[in-house]
Amino acid sequence: MIKKSKRLLIYGIVFLCLVGMAVAYMRNNALPFIIFNTIQFYFAGDPAEGVGYVPVNDDDFTVSILASGFNAPTRVVLAPDSAHLLVTQLTGEVLALSRDNGVWNNTPRLVGKIETSVPGFPPEELGLVGMVFASDYEDTGNVFFLYTYKNSDGGVENRVSIVSLKERFGSLVFATEPQKIFTANVPGNFSHQITDGIGVEVEGKSHLLFLIGEGFDATRAQDLALEGGKVMLIQVDGSNPLGMRPYPKHPKIQAVGIRNAYTMAQNQYDTRKRVLIGDTGPDTNDRIMYAPLFLENRISGTPLNLSWDGSVDSLKRAIRDPFETAIKDIVLTRLPKTETFVGLSVHPGGGVIPPSTAKEQSVLALVFGKTGSKKNSPGKALWLGQLKQVSHQPKITFTPIIIRSPEVEGSIGNPIGLTVDSQTGDIFFADILEGRVYVVSPK
Q1: 398 and 303 in a common domain
Q2: How remote is the C-alpha of 51 from its chain's centroid?
Q3: Which residues span the domain enclosing 20?
Q4: What is the number of other CB atoms lying within 10 angstroms of the CB of residue 99?
Q5: DSSP state of 57
Q6: Are residues 270 and 347 in the same domain?
Q7: Among candidate residues 361, 363, 352, 364, the one with its CA nearest the CA of residue 388
Q8: Whether residue 388 sits in one domain with residue 240
């Protein structure tokens, strides 16, 4: 009788939880995911004490911890002068590591803070996730910050702010107060939507090309009136961009049809300056797209639909290059199960990494894996691939070069953010749960 009562009690608790999550979903379809993420994180365990990542082949690379003690780092960006490595935290802080005579100081200094009004992860993935140096940074010191902000009504906004940086006592600091220049016209969600960008020049003026993903309401990705599921373009003051526009009635939109996209990178070795975009979802068909957003070094005025409409078929559908009919699909990679691309970069080459040329480039992809999972795979790795043309079609095949260490199996950790030092060839990334920045050196 006692066992039966206990069983009924457990069933009752489970039923109430399910009812509660159903009610929460009707009121806010993000809340159940927040609850699930929080529970999953707290039951996952602790971060590793030792080095969390190792080379697949010790003869090819070394891996070491550059700095520790970060709180949910989200992006690692090397400054144009290569003397400062900046790290953003989900809670809004921007920190910097400085290099003197080729040696990195492993004690981060506070550069400034972007106000996000969110507690960080867990329970939410809201906050500061993007940092982009303006194309005229060396003249202006301008940097764009991409983040989600929780307003006084509890609503979530996708925002961009701009700040000017300056050097003081060997480190970088905010020289101006953050100025909000853009708020998307769609409400945000518990997961990061506005994420990454590229500083570009259009008709001699600095612009920001950036991503606002859409993984929850796919209909918005195809709706030109809504700034979700889009590649966007704005000037430094948030105004409409210059040049010919693909969608004249919606001038800030550069392309439509992306899922939750965390990373983008321009291929400077490509004569067409195409852009790598990694988007992801909760199930299958994570994609890396090779988007023709530029034409002869000018921003494109041709519409581009990256296909996402909420259906699996839309992710499998080939996307034709509007400028080269021989390219029947601009999608380089579709993964059979979700692993989540959180960093893309074109490496100049050096050591064991083949040199990048106009014909073939070495591309790095950082793969996040499952949040809070204690298993070392899937994901949780750094991949290297060779991007080249095969019968006019761009192709790439990736091979893991850095993986989670077998010694930390059973400990939580997820890599995030990716940047490359073009002078030394060193590769940097963070771990959002370990709170560390790693450096990978090719041999």
Answers
A1: yes
A2: 23
A3: 1-44
A4: 18
A5: S
A6: yes
A7: 361
A8: yes
Supply the pTM of this predicted model: 0.89
Dist CA 50 CA 437 (whole Å): 13
How far apart, in Å, are the Cα atoms of 363 and each of 68, 124, 133, 366, 388?
Answer: 27, 31, 21, 10, 10
The residue type of 310 is G
For 143, the 3-state DSSP assignment is strand
Most confident of the ranges 29-33, 262-266, 388-392: 262-266
Q: Are residues 332 and 391 in the same domain?
A: yes
CA-closest candidate to residue 316, choices 296, 299, 336: 336
Per the CB < 8 A criterion, the answer to whether 91 and 107 are in contact is no
CA separation for the pair 429, 132 (Å, rounded): 16
Q: Can you list the positions of beta strands (E) in 188-258? A: 194-202, 205-212, 230-235, 253-256
Total length of the chain = 443
Q: Is the same domain home to 436 and 338?
A: yes
Residue 309 CA: distances (Å) to CA of 105, 218, 221, 222, 312 = 46, 5, 6, 6, 9
Q: What is the per-residue pLDDT across 46-68, written as a single tens digit (0 to 9) for each?
A: 666 789 999 999 999 999 999 99
Structure tokens at 386: 């060779």
